[in-house]
Specification:
Blueprint (H helix, E strand, L loop, with lengths): L13 H32 L3 H9 L2 H34 L12 H8 L3 H9 L4 E4 L5 E5 L2
Antiparallel strand pairs: 1-2
Helix pairs in contact: 1-2, 2-3
Length: 145
């Protein structure tokens, strides 16, 4: 695991919160964009009189085929953008050089997490560890060592 898991939203940066909110809004807008035409099409196929008149007013079957082409092109563009994003994230996560990995010794690890060296060794030998954090995300106590 390379990233930290934060279950407390107040510890996330404003940039991450705004990014998550933006992604949430974009996903819901895409779902609504995809579902509204399907609901309209289903109503038309099931024989809703209002939808049948509306379909005739807007050009009937030929208009439906044109809308389906636009719909398919939009889905294709969204798929291409999604695949580009996945490719970008995959390439970005790979290290450029094998020597880019830092080797961390126990003293640096203890200093970073503010634990004692004997606690670290006990935790390595333990089968299960419970880590307690304060409100700022710092380790307060290790249990089970």
């Amino acid at each position: 695991m390379k990233e930290y898991i934060i279950n407390a939203p107040q510890l996330q940066s404003l940039r991450k919160r705004i990014g998550a909110l933006f992604a949430w809004v974009v996903c819901w807008v895409m779902w609504i964009y995809l579902l509204i035409p399907l609901v309209t099409l289903s109503s038309w196929v099931l024989g809703d009189k209002k939808m049948i008149n509306e379909m005739r007013w807007f050009g009937g079957y030929k208009s439906l085929l044109e809308l389906m082409q636009i719909y398919c092109v939009t889905l294709l563009v969204m798929l291409i953008l999604w695949l580009c994003w996945i490719s970008y994230r995959t390439l970005r996560s790979k290290p450029i050089l094998p020597s880019a990995h830092k080797i961390v010794d126990d003293a640096a690890l203890c200093a970073f997490y503010q634990v004692k060296a004997d606690e670290l060794q006990q935790c390595r030998n333990a089968a299960m560890i419970t880590v307690y954090f304060d409100d700022h995300g710092h380790i307060v106590h290790l249990d089970g060592c």
